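Exercise: predict the fold of this chain.
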Amino acid sequence: MTSSPAQNLPTHLVRGLLILLGIVAIVVHQATGLSLGLLWLALFVGWPLVGTLITLDDDLPGGWSNPDGAAVPPWRDAAFGAQLVFGLAAAAIGFAHDGRWRTLREMLLLAVAVAFVAVAILLLRTARGDRAGAR
């Protein structure tokens, strides 16, 4: 199975870059007043989805990244789903922050974020189990 360049990066580097991008979004939010929820939604969900759509044909059998059709595309891995669900959790927290944590809506958004994190953890465990079974 081949992997994307992002999957070949050390985990601590990827985490560091995600944290840095999250901080940049916070700075943009503070400087411009743009919604932190929308910024994190665009950054952590929109960007991966758009990138996947742009390179979708490359991952299909016969494509640039999968010429023999033997590789499983990264977007079919549970880890990709976990990444998107973690992004949705971050966006929910960002939207709750936008509301300044004053109403029931913000508390519900926090509960949604916790639920998303639980789902993402389950997806990650599934992905690790799939990888261990593939060895």
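Check your answer against the key: The longest helix spans residues 104-134.
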